[in-house]
Amino acid sequence: MTDSDLVPRLWGLVEAIRDSAPLVHNITNLVVHNDTADAIAAVGGTQITLHNVEEARDAAAACAAIAVNLGTLNDAFLHCARDAVALAASLDRPWVLDPVAAGFTAYRSEAAREFLDLGPTVVKANASEVLALAGRAHGGRGADSVHSVSAAADAASRMARRHGSIVVVSGSDDMLTDGTRRAMVSNGRPVMGRMIGAGCMLTSVIGCFLAVSDRPFEAALAAVAYFDVAGELAAERAEGPGTFKPLFIDALYNLERGVFLERVRVSGDTVHALA
Predict the structure, then answer these.
(1) What is the CATH number of the domain that holds 133?
(2) Residues 78-112: pLDDT tens digits?
(3) Are 145 and 100 in contact (CB under 8 A)?
């Protein structure tokens, strides 16, 4: 648990999403199209999943936030994402980058660095992806991390300062940093890491929260906390990854204020700075 002012304010962003149903341009990968769309809908947002260049700028202009997930790359996908991000920048719209499996291939790493240099509002990555982009490791096992969150903490802080982004490092505990402050969210359950698409779903959910706040650190913190508390609730009833996923979507949809305030565990030097 954290201070009495911050957590209710985080919940206020949940209510803002449910009230306004912000539209997110969900430029995500082929493995998780449906899962990320379900997650956005479950938290109360709306989404459009478009990858064709001809619609990229129009879609970005109509949306309150953009999620760019580099999981399944090709040149056409990158062209679409570039156009959408350029339009978002011109309109001062927030966007979140997920550099999936950065470090795994040269093509993928080059694309991730290109988008990182465009200054995403939030970068959501695992520890191995952060270290690969920092030149400190060769990446993980495909999209899976082989490094701890603590091992990537300093690299994440440097990345945040260099690119002006909030960096979310996902793991057993999730860390957020803006380069000077750090926060830890200690919710969630290990089964979340065995559900294909969990990290991608979090990226898209972060897009929803960015859409309703002009404080990106707080928005990202609220998204991670909400996502992880829902994961705890689903894990208590699930028998494994197969039963976990539908229970998790239901938990994202049904999570109530009292349960969130009771369960959420946020710590770090940012707690008092945000209050």
Answers:
(1) 3.40.1190.20
(2) 999 999 999 999 999 999 999 999 989 999 999 99
(3) no
